[in-house]
Amino acid sequence: MTARPLLSSGALAVWVKEPSPGLFFWVVTQASADAHTGDVCIDASDHPYPTHDAALRVGAACLKAHQATADAALRYQPTYFTPAAAHRPALTGN
User: Fold this and answer.
1) Which residues, at least 6 apart from 13, have a Cβ–Cβ distance to it below 8 Å?
2) What is the pLDDT of residue 32?
3) CB 3.0 to 4.6 Å from 10: which of 31, 42, 43, 85, for a disulfide?
4) Contact call for residues 66 and 28 (beta carbons, < 8 A)
């Protein structure tokens, strides 16, 4: 696996390629925000699989893992809280 960080909120897709007969590789891509740029490779298999179905199943699991990571990052909302500031006395007009 050669994972790369997600670039944007573009849709993810899994593709199975057969560069040689009987050797199947999966590729996870992300749709580019720019219409003139092709899809970006996010992850790909390091070794071939014996069947199209086997490659597709592993690629789909990888896509789901990337999507879950992206969803978790979107849900994470950092809070900026300084404990010392919470205990400071309020300033008064005089």
Assistant:
1) 28, 29, 30, 31, 39, 63
2) 80
3) 31
4) yes
